[in-house]
Automatic annotation (TrEMBL):
Protein name: 3-oxoacyl-[acyl-carrier-protein] reductase FabG
Organism for this UniProt entry: Lacunisphaera limnophila
Record family assignment: Belongs to the short-chain dehydrogenases/reductases (SDR) family.
Lineage: Bacteria, Pseudomonadati, Verrucomicrobiota, Opitutia, Opitutales
NCBIfam families, sorted: PRK06180.1 (NF004824)
Pfam families in UniProt: adh_short
Amino acid sequence: MSDSPASLVWLITGCSSGLGRALASAALARGDRVAATARQPAALADLAAAYPDTCRTFALDVTDPAQVTAALAGTVAAFGRLDVLVNNAGYGLVGALEECSEAQIARNFEVNCFGALRVIRTALPQFRAQKGGHVICISAAAAIANYAGFSVYGAAKRALEGAAEALALEGRPFGLKVTLVQPGPFRTDFIARSLDRATTPLPDYEATSGKFARFLGTMDGKQPGDPARAAAAIIAAATADRPPLRLVLGPYATDKVRRTLTASQRELDAWAPVGGPTDFTAGT
């Protein structure tokens, strides 16, 4: 039996479309209370109208500390607590590392990593006071093993995962749970609306990052993943007594994890005779 409240209070970033919108809708449909946020909250007016007693909307750009503080305070003022924080806001950046500008790199990390950490840090005092809560971060298949052309985006997501791994240990004494969601390709507008591209494409990367960018274009609208089923899986994790540290969504991402683990094990075994014996010898 779960020790979570029967009706959870959620704060979800990036709810204007895609997975964030599907998750907010699913949580509201099951009777939970949801603080739905977006940079343009007018896009959430239909949710608030459909669920006037259980939905509140807030303007939230995760790069704006004042908006982060206001959204967290508004959630607690409206619903009395916060049970599940979902960091979903983010966007991709396609291009080889050399092709991306410093401004693009900084902005991508600011949204996908530092912005998410800002939201988490602002929520932690509430979770500590409650002696419990759940942080869920939407990561990416690029954090499982990266692609040519996603150097910056994958790095930002992997950095977030590293912080979340430590957070799970740091927060355990006061009942904090942490889950990283690693989705495969889901049919959202991520490619159409949430994808920035390198400012200076170079011919030498045409066969690597250029090929990847072209492939992404062919996938738009054809992704096999169903956002509604992804939302149901995330809700199952949020209501579990022992949620996973990593929740892998979809056959593609599941297979990618297995292949990555197998390759890592083979490389470790092959190089252990070289990398293993590097301690001081006995008696020194």
